[in-house]
Amino acid sequence: MLVLLLGGAGLLYGVQSPAANTESVPATAAATPPPPAGAVPPTFTELWRAPSPATPTVLVAGDGVVVAEGSRVSGRDAVTGAQRWSYTRDLPLCTTGVADGRVMALYRNDQYCSELTTLGPDTGERGPTRTLDARPGTRLIGQDPVLATGVDYLETFRSDLVRTAEYGTVRAPEEPGDQPRAGCTFRSFATARDRAGVLERCPGEASERLSVIRPSGSEGDQPAFDSSAEIGTDGAQLIALSAERAAVLLPGTPRLALYDRGGRKVGEFPVAAGAQISVPADGVARTSSDEDTRYWWTGGATVALDSATLEPRWSVPGTSGPGARYGDRLLVPVPGGVADVDPDTGAVARTVPVDRGAWTGPVQVAAQGGLLVELRGDEIVVLGPA
């Protein structure tokens, strides 16, 4: 009888466990590295494309490119687009991301985006998993911490997937009163090392509030803060965090307000934001970065911010996305191609032609060796030197 009970329990676990309704097809051979980046070529030509509506940004990991659609995440050969590995659940994908060199796939179970799996970028082999309480529409941003965003709830976890903080409308609070405020709406997000920032609007307050959580000092649903204070205005956007600062785009005439670690305003700089300023629906500013600089796409221009101070350095108008480092140059998407930009000065040497057909919307781009990977709406397009 005991044997039957144990066997039944094991069968029930097997049916209900994530592995029961999963198809995991690892790579069978080593990945072929993409060609290295050399000088910026005279033009780029399309190598392959694939639908990828569940990648909110370009995911280059290991030696390949990650695409995601429906319930499937797959690793593609960077040059040919051939599928090297795949991971599929019988649940819809909420979003994907990359942290600590691993691909993250977050699936929806009932009303929550709760089933998080990590995958090896070159093999597709499964790594650590965890359960989140994120809501549909969430983004996974940052490295340490990783921040799962939401309109009224967020959580952070380390690269080993250990949860470090919860903030907002917690589904199952450990103790009443652990959260400092209730009923707030979260509008924009950013991360830096051991910092997670949110610009929020709370009932009974006169303006938006900038809150910066310190995950290493938090205990579950008792978040610790570097600072949390009203900023005196509405309609702002949190653009970026650094180790000591937060950059907030103020409404009206484009200005970037800088706040120190204690939440004190330490500067305000005019921004050449171009003809249009976009408000990302997911609350995450479109940025890329290298060791010294953050490149922020305003919706009408690409603005370089010093990585430490977050002060604006230069701006290139008329762009379609933030840009990507390519060797010692910065390639910034523009209508009809990519601008070849000096990353130190913002000087544009030329425009390298790229045929995007009828696509005229925003373009996110990343380099994978000497290849350019563009995200145009719901489609990944990989380009090679021509």
Automatic annotation (TrEMBL):
InterPro entries linked to this entry: Quinoprotein_ADH-like_sf, WD40/YVTN_repeat-like_dom_sf
Keywords, sorted A to Z: Signal
Signal peptide stretch: 1-19
Protein name per Swiss-Prot or TrEMBL: Pyrroloquinoline-quinone binding quinoprotein
Organism: Pseudonocardia parietis
